[in-house]
Amino acid sequence: MATQQYGYRDEYAYSYEDDSRGDGPHRGLNRLPAWLRAPIEGRTWREFAYQLVSLPIGIAFFTWVVTMTSLGVGLLITFIGVPVLAAGLAGARAFGSLERTRARGLLGLEVGTPEPVRPRKGGGPLAWMGATLKSGVSWRHLLYGVLHFPWATFAFSVSLAFWTMGWALFTYPLWQWVFPMYAGQAGLQLYGDSAHSVYLNNPFEIALTSLAGLLVVLVTPWIIRGLTTVDRLMVGGLLGPSRLASRVVELESDRGVVVDTAAADLRRIERDLHDGAQARLVNLAMGLGLAKEKLAEDPEAAARMVDEAHGEVKTALQELRDLARGIHPAVLTDRGLDAALSSVASRCTVPVVVEVDLKERPAPAIEGIAYFTVSELLQNVSKHSRATRATVDVWRAGDRLMLQVQDNGVGGADAGAGSGLSGLAERLDAVDGILLVDSPAAGPTRVTAELPWRRA
């Protein structure tokens, strides 16, 4: 089932290289169960490398943070403490940049760059120090340096212990000969005191040791993944952009989409007026002028011209009605979505069943967006689907207004960039809406839209 999804916005996203693709050198690996191929996947080795590198970086980061913070706080009695603290925070941000790069390369974790320090223009070093000390991002980086060190120590110890123990025991049959040849003992000592000693030296014990090592090897990747999950949360939560800053960026982007959409609508209205009703009214004026001139000398020709002008008036009125309906239909304002969508469905080229289950009306803006969304989707059904029937369902789910348009056509709706569905998704995204397209090649097509519910 081919599903396209638009409108979801994350502060950060996870992306992993697929080490088990069913093509090329990974074809055989892909046939193994996940628990069996995990120890030899590239992802496991990268995450293990991440934990190994975390400890030295964590030590350096923690040392910098503690040294600069304690020194800066201790010197606050003099002015020297302020630049020392600012330098400590700036260094913490530099370490944070390194951590984001390391997480991107080894964990596949994409974390956006947080907002930079913006000192007042012309303020000089003092303005920079003040902006750095006031920056919540800088203090979150400092907090990360404090919290990451103990966690890195724990994760490093656990990862290294399980990794080395598992592979050492699993490969014990390959290096067991080292003990009698170089250590002067029968094998790996399991227990020993002054009276007794137990060595793993007979074939059964060696095989059992290898089997125990294999179990540890199979479990270790999942332990490491659990540890790196905490690292992902720390990097994403403390070293990424704040939720407020991300929301501001989203709103700025949405505002741009709304402005572009409004400008496009105005251009469309101007073009429709110029090429449609305006042109017809100009022809009508010219026709009536000719009819007036011929009225005395050729009444019959004048009557025919007036009759043609009458037809032009009817056509121009219909075009103006269609244009007004495209701006905002009166039936939507007067009677709501049920009647408005039924009117749209009646103009579709295939039979459409409309079901609207709403106990109250949403805000006019949301209602208008819902109307035009369904209108555009039904136009797609008429033009491209080759369907014989379609359905429109509208209902409320919690604080969301849900729309769903289905048809039994040929499917294959293209929701890629530049298509009509892509533009529709951008409009919904501008109001925190979501568009989901499910359109396999053989059909049917199901398009679901979610809009925020806002009371009228």
Description:
The chain has 456 residues and is of the alpha+beta class. The protein has helices spanning 27-30, 34-37, 42-74, 81-107, 124-134, 136-170, 172-175, 178-183, 203-238, 243-294, 299-327, 330-335, 337-346, 364-385, 420-429; strands spanning 3-6, 12-14, 109-111, 188-192, 197-200, 352-357, 390-397, 400-407, 434-438, 445-452. It has a 6-stranded mixed sheet, covered by helices on one side. The longest helix is centred in the middle third of the chain and has 52 residues, at 243-294. It is elongated and about 135 Å long. The two termini are 37 Å apart. The model is unreliable at 1-25 (pLDDT under 50).
Uncertain stretches of 5 or more adjacent residues = 1-25
Strand order of the largest sheet: 1-9-10-8-7-6
Global morphology: elongated
Number of helices: 15
Strand residues, percent: 5-15%
Mean pLDDT: 79
Number of strands: 10
The residue fraction in helices comes out at 55-70%
Could you tell me the radius of gyration in angstroms? 35 Å
Query: Could you give the distance between the termini?
Result: 37 Å
